[in-house]
Amino acid sequence: MPELTDNMILSSITGATRLSTVFVQSTPLTSFLNPRYWPTWLGLGFFRLLSVLPLPIVAILGQGIGLVFYALGASRRRIAFRNISACFPEFSAAECQLINRRHYQMAGQALLATPMNWWISQKRYNKLVTVHGRDDYDSALSSGRNIILLAPHFAAIEVPGHILAQERPMLSMYQYAKNGLIDELVRRGRTRFGGVMVERKAPMRNLIRAIRQGHPFYYLPDQDAGSKGVFVPFFHELASTYSMLGKFAEMTDALVIPCRTRIRPWGRGYDIFLNPALENFPSGDEFVDTARMNEEVANLIRPNPEQYFWVHKRFKTRPPEEVDKGVKFYK
């Protein structure tokens, strides 16, 4: 990661503040003093205390909690196992079970590390993270090219945005939380180093304009798209998939750079891997581009499958021919 000066960081945060006024308005925390928010405040106080613990301690506690969720959450455990088995047919049932159990441990660790993302100092945070493979990313920035980072839903989903946004404002989509206090603190936590949160239902033209202005877009399109998606392979199964990546890249003349985040063992920090930019992308064919996107996402998952978000029903929406036959992916 290049040496960051105070002026670079201040410039990024200032630029992010200007952009934020376009997408999301901040709400004063005094607006959440109503008694119905008191349980939330209590939970947040506990989370705040976790942020002062060393990351190795957080890792041990979080992985323990993850195993508790694994033992008690039979329904989601079965969903994750079904997903893993479908995506890795070369693995035995025992190997898939092991990945599933480790996946819950990583999810628990990531949950308890969330307060660190929101509250620890910038200096401490940066010491925990190493960025690898910056060549294409730095070259694009220096040449004025627009950038879209293609990132799957890994356990350490927030880390790249926090690190790379310190250099220039980083755009990322999110969905409003029903609890207003949680929603406000999530947005504050994710934007404190220069990130800019774009609500999924916000006008798309504002996002396109911001990307064209040179702000990298951290894009996570790997969830079930329902009736809005196109059916292309994800690993070995057809999956309803959002087809916007190729359209975003075409409309903004952006390079697409795959991004992978890895939690190091036992709380030793995080690695961000920036792969070479996709060549000859987009092609102009919606199905070809979306299938290639899924292939790239699968390639990002394979090195550390236990750190992917397997509890999501990625294959919930089925192709019409399977629906007509009454096929259900999740029993």
Query: Span from first to last CA?
Result: 46 Å
Q: CATH first level: which class? A: Alpha Beta
Number of strands: 9
Query: How many discrete structural domains?
Result: 1
* Overall form: globular
Rg value = 20 Å
Q: What distinguishing features does this structure have?
A:
331 residues; alpha/beta; Glycerol-3-phosphate (1)-acyltransferase; 7-stranded mixed sheet; two-stranded antiparallel sheet; 13 helices; 49% helix; 14% strand; globular
Produce a short descriptive summary.
The chain has 331 residues and is α/β, with parallel strands linked by helices. Helix content is 49%, strand content 14%. It has one domain (6-324): Glycerol-3-phosphate (1)-acyltransferase.
Layout of strands and helices, then pairs:
Layout: H1 6-23, H2 38-50, H3 55-72, H4 74-87, H5 93-119, H6 122-127, E1 129-132, H7 135-142, E2 146-150, H8 159-164, E3 170-174, H9 180-191, E4 195-199, H10 204-212, E5 217-219, E6 230-234, E7 237-241, H11 244-252, E8 254-263, E9 270-274, H12 286-301, H13 320-324
Parallel strand pairs: 1-9, 2-5, 2-8, 3-4, 3-5
Antiparallel strand pairs: 6-7, 8-9
